[in-house]
Amino acid sequence: MPGVIRDHHFQLFQQLMVTARSEGDTATERRWGHRWLDDIEAIHPKNDDERSALDIARVDAASEIDEPERVLPALMASERAMPTNYNASLRLAEMLEGAKRYDEALAACDRGLAHATGPVGKSWLLTTRANVLDDRGDHDGARAALAAALDVAKGIGEPQIRDRNVSRITRALEEYDKRPH
Question: Are 64 and 34 in contact (CB under 8 A)?
Fold first, then answer.
């Protein structure tokens, strides 16, 4: 599709996957996901902005087909290439969690937290940390990380973003407290 810009190209893959899933055709959904990842892997980013954009698509595609392991090498390379970009660490932590590599996911969260300068990034990293701790069975640590994420989110300056994040984290805390531990 030479005349289609990359974002639209990626959206087409995503829509083809959604259509296959809605028809119950998981084999076709996976095939489109693999083609999307193949396309992403064929692109050599020209700069950090392009690298970040590719990583977002990479995580989306891998999440859709539940293959976090496939994108770990590329995400690790991105984190090495952008060591002060907390988003690179966040995306890596999310995929490491999906791959059940919890200690590595927590370390990626810590690296991201060391570079996150604002409350939006910190709250996402702390929420991811809570998810990893919960997966690992550290329920007290998970709840503490969620509470910390909520405190940080309350400091977001933009009212709509703050309200959305506070609401999301509050719901997560309420749901967490309802679960037996």
Answer: no
Say how far apart CA 150 and CA 172 lie, in whole Å. Answer: 10
| Alpha helices per DSSP H over the chain | 6-22, 26-41, 48-64, 68-81, 86-98, 102-115, 119-136, 139-153, 159-178
8 A C-beta contact, residue 104 and residue 134: no
| pTM score of the predicted model | 0.90
Which has the closest alpha carbon to 106: 66, 63, 137, 74?
137
- Structural domains in the chain, CATH included, are 1-101 (1.25.40), 116-181 (1.20.58)
pLDDT interval class at 4 (50, 70, 90):
low
CA atoms within 13 A on the CB side of 14: 15
Please list, residue by residue across 2-14, b when 16 or more beta carbons sit within 10 angstroms of its beta carbon and e when fewer do. eeeeeeebbeebb
Decide: 61 and 11 in contact? Cβ < 8 Å.
Answer: no
- Render pLDDT for 72-112 as a digit per residue (tens, 0 to 9): 999 999 999 999 999 999 999 999 999 999 999 999 999 99
